[in-house]
């Protein structure tokens, strides 16, 4: 075979390998933390392969006695180990570079499950982290598949999480995520829930014309994942059960 042809084939296979998609059912999203002090420093998720990997969180005590967190995907084999270890080569330990792992934990039961591991400080009670995929302001633009949004942001204290589906005639729907004013959201959701309540089991004209566009808000950290309509349905079910705080839009435990 011609060397050049071989090279082209080699490169093609390399690219296929790099961009090979993990089947949706085997995707596990894990919070990426790189020397984070608290959860709000971790604003990205990694997409891991749940067949071979788990989410992990390490609490690392640095040589300067700071506590930082590192997290992401890790092989299932490495997760089975899990006893505290010293990082770095022996010679380095004798020298000055020395780090201790105070805690190392793994999980794979849920997307983003490692945000609860090793005691990493969560969001403050009145500050919320939300998925953030928006053409204008975020690192990540609006997405054409809800599961593609893997960027988070910390909203202002007067904001909650927000999601929006946008219908474009003749092309694919886009999904937008971010923060929205708490007061506006409270009014929006009161209207949304009352409409859904009126239309539950009704076939009146008003209920036939649910808009294809969708807006929804919710008050818990990271609650704005999924298709807007799914978020609405999820929170409506809680609202019906009296399990949603009408003021904060947070789930009542
Ligand atoms: C990952 O796989 C485990 C079984 O090994 C399963 O219990 C879990 O639900 C999966 N996680 C996700 C997010 O699909
Ligand atoms: C946020 O919470 C802290 C402590 O819980 C409180 O001191 C502060 O006033 C709150 N801020 C707002 C804007 O609610
Ligand atoms: C929220 O408001 C609705 C009426 O608008 C009420 O039926 C429901 O009990 C309220 N939920 C809570 C948790 O207070």
From TrEMBL:
<keyword id="KW-0732">Signal</keyword>
<protein>
    <recommendedName>
        <fullName>Sodefrin-like factor</fullName>
    </recommendedName>
</protein>
<feature type="signal peptide">
    <location>
        <begin position="1"/>
        <end position="20"/>
    </location>
</feature>
């Amino acid at each position: 075979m011609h060397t050049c042809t071989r090279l082209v084939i080699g490169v093609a296979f390399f690219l296929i390998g790099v961009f090979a998609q993990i089947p949706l059912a085997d995707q596990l999203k894990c919070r990426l933390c790189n020397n984070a002090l608290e959860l709000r420093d971790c604003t990205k998720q990694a997409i891991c392969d749940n067949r071979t990997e788990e989410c992990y969180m390490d609490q690392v005590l640095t040589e300067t006695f700071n506590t930082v967190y590192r997290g992401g995907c890790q092989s299932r084999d490495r997760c089975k180990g899990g006893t505290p270890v010293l990082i770095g080569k022996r010679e380095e330990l004798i020298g000055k570079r020395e780090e201790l792992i105070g805690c190392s934990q793994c999980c794979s039961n849920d997307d983003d499950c490692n945000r609860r591991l090793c005691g990493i400080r969560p969001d403050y009670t009145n500050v919320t982290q939300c998925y953030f995929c928006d053409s204008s302001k975020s690192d990540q633009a609006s997405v054409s598949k809800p599961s593609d949004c893997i960027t988070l942001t910390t909203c202002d204290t007067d904001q909650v999480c927000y999601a929006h589906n946008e219908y474009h005639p003749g092309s694919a729907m886009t999904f937008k995520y971010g923060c929205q004013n708490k007061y506006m959201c409270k009014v929006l959701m009161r209207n949304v829930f009352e409409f859904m309540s009126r239309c539950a089991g009704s076939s009146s004209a008003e209920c036939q014309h649910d808009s294809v566009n969708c807006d929804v808000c919710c008050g818990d950290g990271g609650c704005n994942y999924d298709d807007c309509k799914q978020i609405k349905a999820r929170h409506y079910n809680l609202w019906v059960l009296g399990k949603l705080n009408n003021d904060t839009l947070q789930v009542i435990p």
